[in-house]
UniProtKB/TrEMBL annotation:
This is Short chain dehydrogenase. Keywords: Oxidoreductase. Gene3D superfamilies: NAD(P)-binding Rossmann-like Domain. Belongs to the short-chain dehydrogenases/reductases (SDR) family. One of its GO terms (molecular function) is oxidoreductase activity. It holds the Pfam family adh_short_C2. It comes from the Bacteria. The keyword DNA-binding does not apply. InterPro entries: NAD(P)-bd_dom_sf, SDR_DHRS6-like, SDR_fam. NCBIfam families: PRK07578.1.
C-alpha cells in the first residue's frame, strides 16, 4: 500500500511515518523541505502540486495543522483565520483535492484532538478547528465515491510534549504518541469510515 503522510516531520508525523514504513510504501510531505515532497496545506495550489508529484496513492494520513493558543479576548482576526486555514480548511482541501489521487477503496485520515470535547483556557481556536474537522469527516463519509473512506484521529496531549503543554492541559493524563500512530494504522488498514478515533480520552 502506498501511503502519503502529510506533516511527517512533527512529533505525531514522525511516529506515524515510523510505524507505517514497516508495513507500507510511505511518501512523506511537509512544509520543512526535509521530506519527499514539500506542501503547504493552507495553499490549495501547493496541495494540487503535491498530488501531481506523488501520483496515485492508497491512503492519505494528515498529521499537520497548527492553531494559536490565546485567550479569546486576545485573539485577532488573523488568529481566527490562521486556525481555520491551518487545521480545518487545509485538511478539507487535502481531501477535496485528493479525490482523484486516492485509489478505489482508499482512505483519508485527518487529525483533530481532545479540545473538540474537553475545552481549556486559550484553546477556543483548537476546539473550533477540531470540531469542524470531526463534523466534516462524518459528513464527507456519506458522499465519498469509489469506496473511499475517511476518519479522524483525536488524541489527548502527548507524553512527549507534556513539558511544553502541561500548563495548558492541567491534570490531563497524557498518552504516548505511539498510541495515536496506532489509530492511524487502524484507520488506514481497517474498514470503518466517518469515525473519530479517540486516543487517551
Amino acid at each position: 500500500m502506498k501511503v502519503l503522510v502529510v506533516g511527517a516531520t512533527g512529533t505525531l508525523g514522525t511516529a506515524v511515518t515510523t510505524l507505517l514504513a514497516t508495513r507500507h510504501d510511505v511518501v512523506t510531505a511537509s512544509r520543512t523541505g526535509r521530506t519527499d515532497v514539500v506542501v503547504d496545506i493552507t495553499d490549495p495550489a501547493s496541495i494540487a502540486a503535491m498530488y501531481a508529484q506523488v501520483g496515485r496513492v492508497d491512503a492519505v494520513a494528515c498529521t499537520a495543522g497548527s492553531v494559536p493558543f490565546k485567550e479569546i479576548g486576545e485573539l485577532s482576526r488573523e488568529d481566527v483565520e490562521s486556525a481555520a486555514l491551518n487545521k480545518l480548511l487545509g485538511q478539507v482541501e487535502l481531501v477535496r483535492r485528493g479525490l482523484d489521487s486516492v485509489a478505489d477503496n482508499g482512505s483519508f485520515t485527518l487529525i483533530t484532538g481532545i479540545l473538540s470535547g474537553e475545552p481549556v483556557r486559550t484553546g477556543s481556536m483548537s476546539s473550533m478547528a477540531n470540531g469542524g474537522v470531526d463534523a466534516f469527516v462524518r459528513g464527507a463519509a456519506v458522499e465519498l465515491p469509489r469506496g473511499l473512506r475517511i476518519n479522524s484521529v483525536s488524541p489527548t496531549v502527548f507524553t512527549e510534549s507534556v513539558e511544553v503543554y502541561d500548563a495548558t492541559f492541567p491534570g490531563f493524563p497524557p498518552v504516548d504518541v505511539s498510541a495515536a500512530a496506532l489509530a492511524y494504522r487502524r484507520s488506514i488498514e481497517g474498514a470503518q469510515t466517518g469515525q473519530t478515533f479517540r486516543v487517551g480520552w
